[in-house]
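User: Sequence in, structure out. Go.
Assistant: Echoing your sequence, followed by the structure tokens.
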Amino acid sequence: MAFEYEKWLRPGKLPHIWCPGCGHGIVMKGLIRALDTLQLKKEETAIVSGIGCASRLPGYMDCCTLHTAHGRAAAFATGVKMARPEMNVILCGGDGDGTAIGGNHFIHACRRNIDMTYIIMNNMIYGMTGGQFSPCTPTGAKASTTPYGNPDPGFDIAKLAIGAGASFVARGTAFHANQIDKLIVEAIQHKGFSVVEILDDCPTTYGRRNKYKSVIEMMNRLKDIAVPVKAAEKMDPEQLKGKVLTGVLYKEDKPEYCEQYKAVIERAQGAAR
């Protein structure tokens, strides 16, 4: 299938700002393939982000876009969806923007199960703001604010989303580029709050400090740690140690927030008559 990448790219905005070897461009290309596969209309598609390297993505996309305050993508996107429930609302951002300063908004969007898709690009670091450690930086890894190693345990974003109430949760990697669009397609088609975590890399602020010799080495790490859900079913706990599951991790049909809210309004209007 030939994809119309140019159709979804805003004229005059390229080249992008991402560093060589950054996985965010791979994710954007996967998102474009998903939008093209679903034949969504630009005027009915809103892409919302906060602040950070990953949050620059909407600036390149030719549809309805919002580049908002740091960590507030889920709050702004909720407003869009509540005002225009017919819109296809997609959030994108990094692990810091989504699970640190935006963590509160993230878990409550999951809890409400509002019909939106959140693509979280997890490169385990604050890239744009100076290489500080994030809630997803591995224990022991170095960052500008943890030069002797990070003492904190990291979030598992997928488990966090499931625990908070998201009804669709999936994970992919920038190495497995051909899987990204398929996961996003399924997430958008799902009625409810969908989270797609994409593991990618920041060679500039994470790779250099943690002694990765090349982008290829970082990409190979993603290849080596990823285990598809079906393959994991045949593996024992020892074999799964140090691995991350990829694919659709959780899916449940349950009431969607906009519909629930509409029913409340109708009951209130009925009581007032």
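User: And one key feature?
Assistant: The chain has a mean pLDDT of 96.
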